[in-house]
Amino acid sequence: MARRRTFAIISHPDAGKTTLTEKLLLYAGAIELAGAVRGRHARRHATSDWMELEQQRGISITSAALEFELKGRRMSLIDTPGHNDFSEDTYRALIAADGVVMVLDAANGVEDQTRKLFEVCRRHRLPILTFVNKFDRPSKDPLDLVDDVERTLGIAAAPVNWPIGDAERFRGVYDLGNRTLLRYEREAHGQYRAPVALLSLDDPAARELVGDTLFAHFRESLDVIREAGTSFDLAEYRAGRQTPMFFGSALTNFGIEPFLEALVEFAPPPQPHLSDTGMVRPTDERFTGFVFKIQANMDPRHRDRVAFVRVCSGRFTKDMTLANSRLVKSLRASRAYRFFGRDRETIEVAYAGDIIGLVNPGQFAIGDTLHSGPALRFPDVPRFPAEHFGRIRLKDTRYKQFDDGVKQLEEEGLMQVFYLSTGRREPIVGVVGALQYDVIASRLRSEYGVMAEIEPMGYAAARWLGSADGVSLGGSNVLAVDRQDRPVILFESEWGLRYFERHHPDVVLLAESPVTAAKPGRT
Ligand SMILES: Nc1nc2c(ncn2[C@@H]2O[C@H](COP(=O)(O)OP(=O)(O)OP(=O)(O)O)[C@@H](O)[C@H]2O)c(=O)[nH]1
Ligand SMILES: [Mg+2]
Q1: Any atom of ligand 1 within 6 Å of the Cβ of 87
Q2: Which ligand lies nearest to the CA atom of residue 34 in the structure?
Q3: Does the beta carbon of 11 lie inside 6 Å of ligand 1?
């Protein structure tokens, strides 16, 4: 257990999370050749962007878990999507992680989505390592970037290395601790490791390499951070009060190995988790864990639904009998895997900190607590309320596949599904962001072989209610039901929702379905 390191990579869209993930895998020796986010046909795709739509669009849509060994450590990395429309999935990944890698684009500094995700990390007290990426392109002054992190996020930033030049003149990074300059040479496509040479600053070759002006500026910056900067402190970092900062370029492989070394060395081991019966420590003997993600059809050969479980304590063994806090019946975990993007391997045992995939069709929901021994529950995984609604229309006659697809994608938490009480029984889907419509249509096509179209509707919020009796709906708000026939109101606007609440002070409206909302132990 003590050798496990489990962390998520987060940032604003396009900062380079997936590219950095791929390069960490390359430098860890987990892959031999790095793929690219926008790989042309002949080239490999990045391991963590395994979904067809991700490869087509060059963006991450769903989080991917990757497990690999490095220097005696068992690393579990979760690459997350940056786009706000997929942020519910990113949020779940953060719940499963003990630490975080925050990626910044050197030209943009701290961007909106990074700021939002940082707040989540702060609430969960997750230690954060910062990698400032894309120094092979025109970048902000590194001093300004440090300042940006400190001011915008309100966390102390401790540079561990320092970039030398940017864009075409980016030569490498200077290690502030060892006082050595890591000078890189570009490697054509960044598919292999970049050759690196070590130099001392006093070496005349260093000044020559960097050029006089740049060298003078670099020395000045060094003086500033040595005088006025924060120096790295492991305890401060682990407590979430300080973020060590690293600089580099994931694309050209500059500065990857010092970052990977720091990750292995500094990232926290498995942390305790609060449950309704008290603190669960990773060293506790009995097995506990929770489901933070469900993904169907990852492997076209298996076409199954994988529940991703973060192990919180004890030892998991294949075929063990587990209780699911939401269900009365216990289950046998006969198919257990570890994951490397889309690829999986059967496992026999797992320990606290591990992320494992269990395949038990229909028996898991996001937020389920799994355990051996006496009953307990981890806090529920919060859902983000849907803000966009659309009617989903089948364009062919594959009804069975369509129903299966809609049901399974709903189980993944990709969307909520409603039916109008009157009229045709065409499902209405509710999603957090409109980009999810494309994901639903694309996945229904590629994974279930059905053509469907989503036609946006003018609703803005959905609320469950205990009973629809005596409720009068004004405006264009409508009454609908969910899959279990529980009443739901679809509101035309946020304003319409607030108006309803004012006029029905006795009606309790729930942003989450009642079964989920009724779970004890929620925070
Ligand atoms: N020049 C340059 N481009 C980079 C670098 N790292 C990533 N990119 C490019 O930036 C784009 C986005 O990179 P990704 O790795 O997909 O970024 P991401 O953060 O995973 O994006 P989302 O998952 O969609 O939020 C791609 O075209 C990458 O090739 C870098 O160090 N330098
Ligand atoms: Mg990505």
Answers
A1: no
A2: 1
A3: yes
Question: Residue 81: CB within 6 Å of ligand 1?
Answer: yes
Which residue among 17, 19, 25, 103 has the greatest number of ligand 1 atoms within 8 angstroms of its CB, and so is best to mutate?
A: 19
Q: Is the CB of 244 under 6 A from ligand 1?
A: no
Q: Is 14 in the pocket of ligand 1 (CB under 6 A)?
A: yes
The four Cα atoms 258, 345, 354, 50 give a dihedral, to 10 degrees, of 60
Structure-derived torsion over alpha carbons of residues 40, 44, 47, 53, reported in degrees to the nearest 10: 30
Q: What's the CA-to-centroid distance between 424 and ligand 2, angstroms?
A: 39
Atom in ligand 1 nearest the alpha carbon of residue 19: 15
Q: What is the pLDDT along the chain (523 residues), one digit of tens a residue?
A: 999 999 999 999 999 999 999 999 999 999 998 988 876 654 789 999 999 999 999 999 999 999 999 999 999 999 999 999 999 999 999 999 999 999 999 999 999 999 999 999 999 999 999 999 999 999 999 999 999 999 999 999 999 999 999 999 999 999 999 999 999 988 767 788 888 888 888 888 888 888 899 899 999 999 999 998 999 999 999 999 999 999 999 999 999 999 999 999 999 999 999 999 999 999 999 999 999 999 999 988 888 999 999 999 999 999 999 999 999 999 999 999 999 999 999 999 999 999 999 998 889 999 999 999 999 999 988 889 999 999 999 999 999 999 999 999 999 999 999 999 776 678 999 999 999 999 999 999 999 999 999 999 999 999 999 777 778 787 889 999 998 888 999 999 999 999 999 988 888 899 887 765 444 333 2
CA dihedral 370, 372, 377, 380 (to 10 degrees): -10
56 Cα–ligand 1 center, Å: 15
Q: Which atom of ligand 1 is nearest to the CA of 83?
A: 25
3-class DSSP state for residue 421? Answer: coil
Report how far ligand 2's centroid is from the alpha carbon of 113 (Å). Answer: 13
Which sign, positive or negative, has the C-alpha torsion 511, 514, 515, 521?
positive
Q: Cα separation of 510 and 385, whole Å? A: 10
Q: In 321-468, where does DSSP find H-type helix?
A: 399-411, 435-448
Q: How many H helices and E strands in the chain?
A: 13, 31
Tell me if 19 CB under 6 Å of ligand 1: yes
Measured in whole angstroms, the distance separating CA 92 from the mean position of its chain's CA atoms is 7
Give the DSSP H or E segment for 496.
helix 494-503
Distance 179 CA to ligand 2 centre (A): 33
Q: Is 12 in the pocket of ligand 1 (CB under 6 A)?
A: no
Which residue CA neighbors atom 21 of ligand 1 most closely? 14
How far apart (Å, rounded) are the C-alpha atoms in residues 251 and 34?
10
Place of tokens 């279990």: 484
The residue contributing the CA closest to ligand 1 atom 8 is 16
Which of 294, 340, 336, 304 is closest to 317 using CA atoms? Answer: 336
Assessment of whether the complete model's pTM goes beyond 0.85: yes
Q: Which ligand is nearest to the CA of 247?
A: 1
| Amino acid residing at 8 | A
